[in-house]
Specification:
By secondary structure, this protein is an alpha/beta fold. The protein has helices at residues 14-25, 51-57, 85-91, 122-143, 160-171, 183-191, 223-226, 247-252, 263-267, 269-286, 291-296; strands at residues 3-4, 6-10, 29-33, 60-62, 97-100, 114-117, 152-156, 175-179, 195-197, 211-214, 234-237, 256-259, 298-299. The protein is built from 11 helices and 13 strands.
Length: 300
């Protein structure tokens, strides 16, 4: 006998809402908890008292990015309902696939479960960098008094997001300076036709910046750097907390500071949802299952 795959989506922002719609539109059997949105969207919603039962029946459990803000409850920004991580661990099937972003996978290990922090995966990070970069550039353009074309744009770091951001800015006609600690990263950026400077020496060049894009999740700008920036220069921060500078310092030095974590969920939630879905399909495929048949058809 074969059974239709049951998918439970708990919490999350607009990414998980659109993920539920994408799955439902493709014929998957989906139920959501902790996402209170327009009832006209016809998503199957579970009630709080049935959460444990829903977990026990689910073949796939999709948690948010980030999975939690307090280490105890599932992050539910679209709902006042509260669901605990402990319940997921307690009631999820021993054979469930459990995925979420920035989550402690050890909390959910048990039986033959497949547990994965999709935010830590290369496939997700590479694809997710695109909406992050587009959203960052849009935010900067709203704050700039010059065009990206011919502007001096500084990008801190040179990871996946920073690489795509720097290349996109360069393609738009900007002069791009990559600020990175690693000589290897600076050499690669130079080979791509960009100017470079070490983080330690950023103060030697930052005075010409028309916009700064930070991808490093810790303070990289002190009073020395901020005092050299032109008044009103946008500082767009796409790193996770605490970000690249203190907002009080930004105000003190007249910097247009935009702290924009989780940009894909705000800027392009449908694309972000499709990226999560593609990553889920990859995870299931890597486990030896036919992802399309298992998610959308019948699983044996």
């Amino acid at each position: 006998m074969s059974f239709m795959c049951h998918i439970l989506i708990a919490g999350g922002d607009n990414r998980n809402f659109h993920l539920a719609k994408e799955l439902s539109n493709k014929g998957a059997k989906v139920k959501v908890w902790g996402i209170e949105v327009d009832k006209a969207d016809n998503l199957a919603r579970g009630c709080a008292e049935d959460f444990a039962k829903g977990l026990s029946k689910a073949d796939v459990i999709i948690l948010p990015l980030p999975c939690t803000k307090d280490g105890k409850t599932i992050h539910t920004p679209l709902s006042d309902e509260e669901y605990t991580l402990a319940d997921v661990c307690r009631y999820a099937s021993d054979n469930a696939v459990i995925i979420g972003g920035k989550m402690d996978c050890s909390l959910f290990q048990g039986g033959s479960r497949i547990v994965c922090d999709y935010a830590a995966r290369e496939d997700f990070a590479s694809l997710n960098a695109v909406p992050t970069c587009e959203g960052a550039i849009e935010a900067a353009m709203k704050l700039m008094n010059v065009t990206i074309f011919s502007a001096n744009c500084f990008v801190t770091g040179f990871g996946k997001c920073a690489k795509i951001l720097a290349l996109t800015l360069k393609a738009m006609g900007a002069t791009v300076t990559v600020c990175a600690r690693s000589l290897r990263d600076r050499s690669l950026a130079a080979a791509m036709g960009m100017d470079t400077v070490s983080i330690e020496d950023m103060h030697l060049k930052i005075n010409v910046a028309d916009a700064v894009f930070n991808t490093i999740p810790h303070r990289i700008c002190s009073a020395r750097e901020l005092s050299l920036l032109k008044p009103g220069v946008p500082f767009v921060d796409v790193a996770s907390a605490p970000g690249g500078l203190d907002p009080r310092d930004a105000e003190k030095y007249g910097i247009n500071y935009a702290f924009l974590p989780a940009l894909p969920g705000k800027y392009a939630p449908v694309t972000a949802a499709r990226i999560i879905l593609k990553t889920l399909e990859n995870i299931i495929g890597e486990s030896g299952k036919d992802a399309n048949l298992w998610i959308y058809g019948e699983k044996g």
